């Protein structure tokens, strides 16, 4: 694993972050808010790490998926409530508060999209 700035991934990360903020501020219900936002969140995390780490794409994608699953299962077990942090607005926003099985599916589809796109891009760069 090597540290270096990748402007393409950094730009994608900023764009995805702005998109997520827009969704959070202006869309209060629906598919885009609840499912597409989760789909984008794993891609955002992936781009964040790829913006400064030179790491195998599949390895990173799998680790991002594991991280997303851990966060979701923390919601299932009400970890914030367990540690009396449920009133901490920042942690509630970052970690979430409601477990949804559909979120796990959205994360998984997001990571599959990452792997497919990375494979296609790498294939084009080699030719």
From TrEMBL:
Protein name: DUF2809 domain-containing protein
Organism per entry: Algibacter miyuki
Domain of life: Bacteria
UniProt keyword Secreted present: no
Membrane-spanning ranges: 9-25, 31-49, 61-84, 104-121
Pfam families referenced in this protein's UniProt entry, alphabetically: DUF2809
Cross-referenced InterPro entries: DUF2809 (IPR021257)
Keywords per UniProt: Membrane, Transmembrane, Transmembrane helix
């Amino acid at each position: 694993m090597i540290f270096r700035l990748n402007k393409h991934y950094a730009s994608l990360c900023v764009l995805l972050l702005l998109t997520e903020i827009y969704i959070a501020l202006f869309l209060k219900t629906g598919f885009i808010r609840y499912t597409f936002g989760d789909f984008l969140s794993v891609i955002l995390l992936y781009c964040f790490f790829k913006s400064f780490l030179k790491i195998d794409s599949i390895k990173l994608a799998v680790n991002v998926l594991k991280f997303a699953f851990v966060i979701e299962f923390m919601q299932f077990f009400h970890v914030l409530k367990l540690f009396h942090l449920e009133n901490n607005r920042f942690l509630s926003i970052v970690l979430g508060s409601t477990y949804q099985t559909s979120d796990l599916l959205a994360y998984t589809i997001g990571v599959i999209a990452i792997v497919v796109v990375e494979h296609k891009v790498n294939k084009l760069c080699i030719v």
